[in-house]
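In response to the reviewer comment on reproducibility (Comment 2.3), we provide here a single inverse folding case reported in full, input and output, so that an independent group could reproduce the run without further information from us. The structure tokens appear first.
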């Protein structure tokens, strides 16, 4: 996939690494924010609002770096297929970053809060989303370095997504078995599903990375 990263294109490699590093920052901020959301009995707090501000700033920096990469792709002597591969990868990674940032933002905007009984399970879901997203970024770093661990890391992302699916189904089942009103159940389900979507998007990006590495090896 990254056969184009010859010496004359080291700037592109550096920019891609910067994007991955900034994406890590987004996920770290979101993980801390979701941990707070799962631990407190209120929908909005000053700390959570600050986490939203910080995650938005980091996500905006990801967007800036991505736009710079896209401009540079057309200034470098790259094969069209290489450009398409990188742009497709950035789009997939961007979807994961945006979803993570949006979960935290919607918790604050919609004043979303789970009943105390469901917060420990939600904390587990959020933690598994974080570890899966970080495994995806490890895979991206490995791909940039032509590291053969790329495929193994892709398998770790898939395993993480399977755990997230299990967490989501278990938590939604518990929510609908509770004595909450239907409106409250739907409210809680939406928060759980919105969070679990991070895993689905991470798996999509991991699959794309694996395909690109197989193309490079062919």
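Designed residues, in position order:
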């Amino acid at each position: 996939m990254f056969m184009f990263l010859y010496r004359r294109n080291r700037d592109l490699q550096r920019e891609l690494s910067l994007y991955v590093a900034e994406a890590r920052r987004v996920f770290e901020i979101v993980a801390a924010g979701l941990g707070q959301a799962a631990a407190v009995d209120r929908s909005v707090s000053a700390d959570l609002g600050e986490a939203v501000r910080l995650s938005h700033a980091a996500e905006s920096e990801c967007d800036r770096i991505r736009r710079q990469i896209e401009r540079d792709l057309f200034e470098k002597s790259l094969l069209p297929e290489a450009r398409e591969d990188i742009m497709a990868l950035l789009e997939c990674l961007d979807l994961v970053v945006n979803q993570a940032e949006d979960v935290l933002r919607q918790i604050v905007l919609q004043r979303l809060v789970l009943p105390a009984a469901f917060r420990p399970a939600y904390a587990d879901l959020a933690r598994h989303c974080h570890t899966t997203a970080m495994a995806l970024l490890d895979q991206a770093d490995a791909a940039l370095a032509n590291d053969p661990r790329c495929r193994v890391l892709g398998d770790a992302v898939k395993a993480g997504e399977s755990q997230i699916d299990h967490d989501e189904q278990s938590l939604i089942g518990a929510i609908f078995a509770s004595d909450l009103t239907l409106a409250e159940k739907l409210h809680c389900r939406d928060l759980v599903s919105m969070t679990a979507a991070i895993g689905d998007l991470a798996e999509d990006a991991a699959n794309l990375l694996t395909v690109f590495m197989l193309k490079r090896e062919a």
